[in-house]
Amino acid sequence: MTPLPIPLPDPLPLPMHPGALKALLLVTFTLHLMAVNLGVGGSLIAAVHALRGKPKDRELVRRLAPLLPGAVTFAITLGVAPLLFVQLTYGPFFYTASVLTAVPWLALIFLLMAGYVLLYRFVGSAGSETLHAASGIGAALLLLSVGLMLVNVTTLSLRPDLWAAQAAASPHGLRMNTLDPTLWPRYLHLGVGIVAVAGLLLAGWGAWRSHTYARQAGLRWFIATTASQAAWGTWLLVKQPAPVLDLLLDGRSAASLSLWISTALGALALLMAIPASQDGSRPQAVWAPFGLGLASTLGMILLRDQARDAALAAFGFHPGALPYKTDWLSLGVFGLTFLGLAVLLIVVLRWVMPPAASAKEEAP
Amino acid sequence: MNHPVWDLPFLGSGWIIGIISIIHVSIAHLVVGAGIWLAVMEGRAQRAADGEQQAWLRGRTKALLWLSSIFGATTGVGIWVAIGLVNPTATQHLIRAFVMAWAIEWLLFVGEMATLIALVRAYDRLQPRQRLILYWLYALCAWLSLVVINGIVAFMLSPGQGWTTTHAMWDGFFNATYLPSLLLRTFVALALGGLWALAAGGTADPALKPRILRPTALLVLAGVLLTVPAGWYYFQSFPPAARELVLGNLKGTTGLAQGFRWALLGLGAYLLPGLLVLWALFAPRSFRRPVAVLGLLLACWGFGGFEWIREVARKPFVIREVMYSNGIRVDQVAGYQANGFLPQNAWARTFAASKGDTDLAKGEAILRSQCLACHTRDGYRSLKALTATNSEEDNVLLIQGLRELDPALNPYLDRMPPFAGTEQEAEWVGKYLGSLKAK
Q1: What's the domain count of chain B?
Q2: Domain match, B342 and B217 both
Q3: pLDDT of residue A364
Q4: CATH number of the structural domain spanning residue B315
Q5: B20 and B73 in one domain?
Q6: pLDDT tens readout for residues A170-204
Q7: Per-residue pLDDT tens for A311-349?
Q8: CA gap B42, A329 in Å, rounded
Q9: DSSP labels for B318-340?
């Protein structure tokens, strides 16, 4: 059998223990994903409510819209770090996949830019009489398509067995990773999950600001999208390659525990969200599904990483075994910069937060 | 190239980096300069209790956020995407060498965005002193991100003996061109940011115009004038071989010479805004936005020319003396020449196998890996055109000649990597080159 064309890793050692890099990857990816949930999922929710056009929807959009561009800015900014760490650890797989599907991967930039411009147009209209709902829908769809390009490369990076066929079929990198049966279910699972968490965040914001409609609408978004994960999540699970599927279903491994615990947390959040979304429910009822839903998301992030390592282990790659030489000086400078940034962010937050007295406000 | 090749016909994949980079570096430097300008102007306006000017600066802050978030941040990600596609092997090497520098720069970028968003979203809630501090913090974060990224860009031109021995990040970071490059880029940033501000100020209220345009014109003038000695200092810091490459290719009709002429014209054009801003300085009321836009375009042309010269001065390396522009490390060449490129390159083998493992297929596979980083078959730097008058034997001899590592025997060595393969592999590539005529 011909060996798979997996490029050799770079000869330079990693600058710290691979476990520490993995932790940085997971932390920064989590921060990135939360900003994506708010910016991209929030854009779709805001655009749909703008389309509905009722007074309470328009009021909700006017409150939500100003948050969106900043969230997208942070989604991009915070996305750079996991992109860096993933290239550092999984470079041979990541680069190969991106070159093999180069045109869709590069298109990501233009989709992002176009989505961003439309989002600003939509948000700009929120302060005027006429809401540009079409701009909002266009922005949300473009931003969601950025996710498709990311999933496209991510899924291909896990399937070195498909690379030669992909390269032969598309020497100029035009094709998507359609040879991989996980592409579409993974994208749907992600996209729907983004909207679900955005719904949760909206519900939490509604409870915090005593905005009943935001709270109920957010929970309804969460309920509808999370319920549909029964289809997308199951589809994604059954399409996993055999070694990954076996691991996920064995009931003993860490990956399997992550899968079942986060699924259970998500299901519990769904069940508790239903009564909390009804008329007359207490605002505090949001917090249980809110916490459980976020915990489920964190579990899924962990699961995603475990499934990736399981998939690549089948091809002989073990990130924990990569050679490293700790660069203490650079780590020290990084740490000091991080502390400086943390102080800066705390000071800025204290300055910009509205006074506590005006935090609570009544709304329909 | 250790990875698969993105074979982009006609244009060549390198241009993708070029186009995205020109946009990104112009915006990235502009926002650094604009950040300093905003902080200086806000301070002046506060000291003069000039509420009208502060309100006008608030609008520019918002515009700067749009510019830096929509186009600056996205094209920044675009560079990551593009360099990973065009030269994944070099990108991986740079990331391994400088990941902590990039991580530090990322923190600064987060600080940059956080302060700017805070200024835009919570302007009314901030006390004037808090606003001024945030403006300065934004300017500091933006400039420090330049301080960091400059180390990596300068490293590619002059990594230095220290790093090649120790592979310690800071040995590579503080290299021979680091300080001159930082000075040069800082002054360019002041010029670009100031010209952007002049373009905005060109449409301000007539009563307000002089209060904005005069100090801004001085900033641009300082940026442009200080760029001149900084540029000279920078060029003097080039490694000797890089300087010779530039000076030795200014004349003639080669593509390189034509490129240098365009770049030098750009450097000349960069000085013109220094004259244009005199209008804003001495007759601010009649100054118009198109003049500033013209100045900004000229300055961007000059800055693009500088970046082009810096890129070309690295030839034939992507990291001077460490890695060639085709992703082959200098220390790999001898092994490839002795034992063959194909046996040690999984992706070239995969490509050849997909085309039946014929001699032509093997030649094309090696050519894709070693030549397409800079050439195309029949477009930019067309191999077909460059070898149009060659016989097949000429082509074989040409490629075999490129195996020579002695500059006296290989006249292309100052601008093109040596052929990293056996005599037999050079023959396959020569035959494939000959076959292009029929296509």
Answers
A1: 2
A2: no
A3: 42
A4: 1.20.1630
A5: yes
A6: 889 999 999 999 999 999 999 999 999 999 999 99
A7: 999 999 999 999 999 999 999 999 999 999 999 999 999
A8: 37
A9: EETTTEETTS-BGGGHHHHHHH-
Give the domain-ending residue among B266, B300, B324: B324
User: Does residue B102 belong to any structural domain of this protein?
Assistant: yes
- State whether B304 and B237 are in the same domain: yes
Per CB-CB distance under 8 Å, the chain A contacts of B84 are 87, 94-95, 98-99
Mean predicted confidence (pLDDT) in A231-242: 96
Same domain, B243 and B120: yes
B308 and B261 housed in the same domain: yes
Mean pLDDT by 10 residues, chain B (439 residues): 88 87 94 98 97 97 92 91 94 96 95 95 94 97 97 95 92 97 98 98 95 97 97 96 90 85 94 96 95 97 94 93 95 97 94 94 96 91 92 94 95 94 97 88
Do the Cβ atoms of A341 and B99 come within 8 Å?
A: no
Counts for chain A of helices (H) and strands (E), in that order: 13, 0
Instruction: Give the A:B interface size as CB pairs under 8 Å.
Output: 202
Taking an 8 Å cut-off on Cβ atoms, the answer to whether B70 and A5 are in contact is no
Q: Which residues contact B91 (CB under 8 A, 6 or more apart)?
A: A87, A95, B83, B84
Q: Give contacts of B 131-160 with A, CB under 8 A.
A: 134, 137
Range of the domain at B40: 13-324
Give the CA distances from residue A300 to residues A177, B83, B362, in Å, rounded to whole numbers and listed in that order. 23, 31, 45
Chain centroid to CA B337: how far? 32
Beta-carbon-side half-sphere exposure of residue A228 (alpha carbons within 13 Å): 15
Say which of B71, B103, B126 has its CB closest to residue A334.
B103
Q: Which residue has the tokens 């060549």?
A: B12
Could you tell me the pLDDT band of residue A356, with boundaries at 50, 70 and 90? low
- What residue in A sits closest to B69 (Cα-Cα)? A73
Whether B1 is covered by a domain: the verdict is: no
Chain A nearest CA to B49, separation (Å): 22
Beta carbons of B316 and B414 less than 8 angstroms apart: yes
Is B344 strand, coil or helix? helix
Peptide linkage before B316 cis (omega within 30 of 0):
yes
Inter-chain touch B99–A348, beta carbons under 8 Å: no
Cα–Cα nearest to A221, from A174, A180, A274: A274
Residues of chain B in contact with residue A333, where contact means CB-CB under 8 angstroms, are: 100, 104
Alpha-carbon distance of A267 to A192, in angstroms, equals 15
CB contacts of B80 in chain A (<8 Å) are 80, 83
A106: chain B residues, CB-CB within 8 Å: 16, 78, 81-82, 85
If contacts are CB pairs under 8 Å, which of residues 66-95 in chain B contact chain A? Answer: 66, 69-71, 73-78, 80-82, 84-85, 88-89, 91-93, 95
pTM value > 0.90:
yes
**Looking at CA atoms only, how far is residue A351 from chain B in angstroms?**
7
**Tokens read off for B91:** 């990108």
In a domain, B122, yes or no: yes
Q: Is there a domain that residue B422 lies in?
A: yes
CB contact (8 A) between residue B114 and residue A96: no
Looking at the structure, do residues B352 and B315 belong to the same domain, yes or no? no
CA distance B316 to chain A (A): 20
Question: Do residues B286 and B417 share a domain?
Answer: no
Mutate to test the interface with A, among B70, B357, B367 (most CBs of A within 10 A): B70
Regarding whether B345 and B293 lie in a shared domain, the answer is: no
Secondary structure of residue B317 in the 3-state scheme: strand
**Under an 8 A CB cutoff, do B114 and A7 touch?**
no
Residue where a domain stops, chosen among B263, B292, B324: B324
Any CB–CB contact under 8 A between B125 and chain A? yes
